[in-house]
Amino acid sequence: MQLQGKAIRVIIYFGESDHYEGKALHAALLEFLKREGAAGATVVRGLSGFGAHSRIHTAKIVDISFDLPLRLEWVDQPETVERLLPQVRRMVDDGLITVEEVDVAQYAPGRRPDLLAQPVQDVMRTEVVTVSPDTPAAELVRLLLQKGYRSLPVVDNQKCLLGIITDGDLLNRAGLSTRLDYQTELSGAVVQQQLSALRARNINAEELMTTPVISIPATSPLRDAVEQMVGNNLKRLPVVDAKGCLAGWISRVDVLRTLEY
Question: Does 147 share its domain with 98?
């Protein structure tokens, strides 16, 4: 997974004696973040400090405290933080949580001799917004505009890839009057008029999607993904597992960041 550019840093302040479901809170938080695919987190112990209860905790030799202040730092993609933060907040009963945007200069678990030989799954983004075959056309447009995307994968109940909705599909098959790039320049009234027209047509993703989809297996070398994108003039590719189910998404930007860092 790549983590460069804009990211979110979450800092959690709590006590060494805090627990969650019978386990030390710092261990429970780290296990949860690792299990859910977070990019990484670190816990450090403070020498002294006080919080909401105004008790000063210190590590003086003459008075060793078993409730020293702890600080957990977690930096990740905005989508991942948005997904996991609600549960983190439920786990921290007594503490302080701050969230801020940061610029990641480098996130490198280790260089490989041939960066293009590494598997796509090491570079892909796993946070992917998907739609079902029966998603209405108006909802597709709303999602694309809201998230700033230019395409949406269509999946079944098992997350297997069925098709893809692109800007061109909405123009050519749904009758959208303006490309998504220019929708933000239209007045709210005009956008709502287009959405109402799409609702009236009562068409869904299954009728609009492009299929079959050009995709890349998660275990394929990154070089294959580059060749697929260049050969088919694509900016991004859906990544699938051995069963053909959606595993992630890789774009030209992801590849460039990998080669740069």
Answer: no
